[in-house]
Amino acid sequence: APVSRNHSEELEPAGGTPAGSNSSEWFLDTGATSHMAGSSGNLHSLRPLPRAAPITVGNGATLPVTHQAATSFPTSAAPLHLRNILVSLDLIKNLVSVRSLTRDNNVSVEFDPFGFSIKDLPTRTEMLRCNSSGDLYPLHVPAPQALLASTDLWH
After folding, report:
1. Tens-level pLDDT at each residue, the chain (155 residues)
2. Longest dimension (CA), the chain
3. R_g of the chain computed on alpha carbons
4. CA 31 from chain center: how many Å?
């Protein structure tokens, strides 16, 4: 379950990172009912939610939700879209709801001792493979590959 931190700060500007978190790291969570983020960095379609219900975490604590947003991650086939992300500055980990991910993108997630694979549901084609040696399942987005150009020299 996410751990909260006490603060009195306003919503971070895009690209800001709250203390104790990395706004670009996301972790799969089979128990999360919604995607959740601890800052607005790397998110788009940000809109305030002034009367949103709070997030209830594993120890029963509630965390205020300030905004709703969206983002996407590139894969080998098509982008994975995360919609309706709840933003709470008290979260220290960004969480991907496996249930929302599979429903919104028509994909399956297969876990194994070494990590997980996200596959296109109709074709069963692997779209993204993420290995993990720790206790969590981090979503590792492949880095953009540089295009290599070769030139032939004519004498």
Report:
1. 444 333 333 344 333 444 344 568 999 999 999 999 999 888 999 999 989 999 999 899 999 999 999 999 999 899 999 999 999 999 999 999 999 999 999 999 999 999 999 999 999 999 999 999 999 999 988 765 544 444 455 54
2. 74
3. 18
4. 14
36, 95 in Cβ contact below 8 A? yes
Token pair recorded at residue 123: 């074709």
The whole-angstrom separation of Cα 95 and Cα 91 is 9
CA distance 31 to 133: 21
Q: Report CA 48 to chain centroid distance, whole Å.
A: 19
> How many other CB atoms sit within 10 Å of the CB of residue 94?
28
Q: Are 40 and 12 in contact (CB under 8 A)?
A: yes
Q: State the Cα–Cα distance between residues 142 and 140, nearest whole angstrom.
A: 6
Amino acid 20 reads G
